[in-house]
Amino acid sequence: MGRYVIRRLLQMIPVFFGATLLIFLMVNVMGDPIQGLCGQRQCDPATAARLRQEFGLDKPVWQQYLTYMGNVFTGDFGTAFNGQPVTELMASAFPVTIRLTLVAIFFEIVIGITFGVITGLRRGRPVDTSVLLLTLIVISVPTFVTGLLLQLLLGVEWGVIKPAVSPEAPLDELIVPGLVLASVSLAYVTRLTRTSIAENARSDYVRTAKAKGLPCHRVITRHLLRNSLIPVVTFIGTDIGALMGGAIVTERIFNIHGVGYQLYQGIVRQSTQTVVGFVTVLVLVFLVANLLVDLLYAVLDPRIRYA
Amino acid sequence: MPEPQYDDRGAIAPTGAGGATDLALSEAETLERPPPGSPLGTGPSGKPRSLWSDAWHDLRRDPVFIVSALVILFLVIISIWPSLIASGNPLQCDLAKAQEGSQPGHPFGFNGQGCDVYTRTVYGARTSVTVGVCATLGVALLGSVLGSLAGFFGGGWDATLSRLTDVFFGIPVVLGGLVLLSVVTSDTVWPVIGFMVLLGWPQLSRIARGSVITAKQNDYVQAARALGASHTRLLLRHIAPNAVAPVIVVATIALGTYISLEATLSYLGVGLKPPTVSWGIDISSASPYIRNAPHMLLWPAGALAVTVLAFIMLGDSVRDALDPKLR
């Protein structure tokens, strides 16, 4: 187990540097950060040259990347366009997005797995067909349309929720945005659980469990679910990174000041340090989540042994 | 010692962000080649049917397939000849009629600039279909060539490619789109398509790699190899026809999600730009007025949803037909 963890950690290193380098290059194509600092006005050439030297932008890209990474590992993510340290922006943005992601994952687990179990055990029945159709519809309506419609109906027409989330983003205001963020993954979790349950429901060990007279709920929770949830856990784990990155759209609709909002501001204002910093952390979250999922396999499925 | 197959598992949840390109792969998990001896059924003449004619036999009887294929046929026809059902010009607008509702001759009403929503919705199909088809073709070609080479030859090239796909999977798609496309000033669809190919190929290359690895272990491939067939012949004549089914299924489902991604990027303001007529642009420009004039948003959004739904359902039914294990 220990050796396996170490090998996975070592494998993460090239992926981490590759992804951050890719983003670094993309952002470099994005535009001149000095022009972003001057805002709408044209920069004074002398000032621009001095700033360029001060930020090390006159050096080649690979050297800039190395310097930046060196700084990151000492906890210095640079400064945003308004002179605020990027770490300060992160401290205010990440808690909000993490809360939003947690709400989304909660919905995925509770609603997705419940629907998946119900439909998987009743394949071909009307419940199954209607839930499947519903998931297809949820998958095909883009998230921003779902979000705008829910905001209009619940927030404006019926007044059940506040149309925009306040800056502190308390948990109860994040319920509907979390549901919107989760919607597409929720449909996938339902379908994945359904397929997995339906496959395992025919297996020998379930028949044995039934034959020895276990009550139905015990067969489902102890025998069927434990084996069927392995692919679902994988999906949810890899989804964590995708949800945090995808929060851009949801956060824009509901005006939530989280990671997506800061990233959007960073891109609009061409603040390379903000963009690269946030993306670096997101990539790291994604990689760690994947690693945890692989380790969870062993807990869920004792047949797997790590060399 | 067995190891968890994280490489293949990872394929179910690609870079997607907000779901746009969280391609409908969760189900691809179950997508495997049918076992060689699976009952393929026999035709009326008693002749054994191939996998493809068997799939076609099933598809012709599948109502989901028929409905989605008809919808897609209709979309393709109106994106080639939009004037067949819309006589107006999508760029001809009358500000005096801005935000007005349905009127005789203008069933969907007018948008914020006073353009006819019906005409714009019809003309928007062309953009969406072009983006979807071109992006899918690009992704499928690049992904399946790189993936099958990696699966066939293995070794260093395979390891490099696997790490490279890991790198691409680490970047959320919408995020990459915001960063890369925010510099583009061109008002054509090509930068958006290029971006989708750039970030989309790793997903298909994983699928292609996996199915080539499965196919190359078959006896007939070993036999052909023993008879001295060249690498090219092995790949093209023996492996490709038996490894292409999962790629086709995933690509069909992906087509729908690329259309949805284009709309999402246009909504964020980095996708297509006016004067291109696109559902994403129309939804985006209608969203501030959703309270007073919801029709401006609902029609293009409905058209978008139906289109994406049609492609996803088509991919779904093709998968069911090609994968006898699920029956």
Automatic annotation (TrEMBL), chain A:
Gene3D superfamilies: MetI-like. The keyword Transport applies. Belongs to the binding-protein-dependent transport system permease family. Residues 94-297 form the ABC transmembrane type-1 domain. GO terms for biological process: transmembrane transport. InterPro entries: BPD_transp_1_N, MetI-like, MetI-like_sf. Pfam families: BPD_transp_1 (PF00528), BPD_transp_1_N (PF19300). Keywords: Cell membrane, Membrane, Transmembrane, Transmembrane helix, Transport. It is found in: Cell membrane. SUPFAM superfamilies: MetI-like (SSF161098). PANTHER family: DIPEPTIDE TRANSPORT SYSTEM PERMEASE PROTEIN DPPB-RELATED, DIPEPTIDE-TRANSPORT INTEGRAL MEMBRANE PROTEIN ABC TRANSPORTER DPPB-RELATED. Its main location: membrane. It is a multi-pass membrane protein. This is ABC transporter permease. The chain crosses the membrane at residues 12-31, 98-119, 131-154, 174-193, 228-254, 274-300. One of its GO terms (cellular component) is plasma membrane.
From TrEMBL, chain B:
It is a multi-pass membrane protein. It is found in: Cell membrane. One of its GO terms (cellular component) is plasma membrane. Pfam families: BPD_transp_1, OppC_N. Keywords: Cell membrane, Membrane, Transmembrane, Transmembrane helix, Transport. Residues 1-10 have a biased composition (Basic and acidic residues). Belongs to the binding-protein-dependent transport system permease family. This is ABC transporter permease. It comes from Streptomyces jumonjinensis.
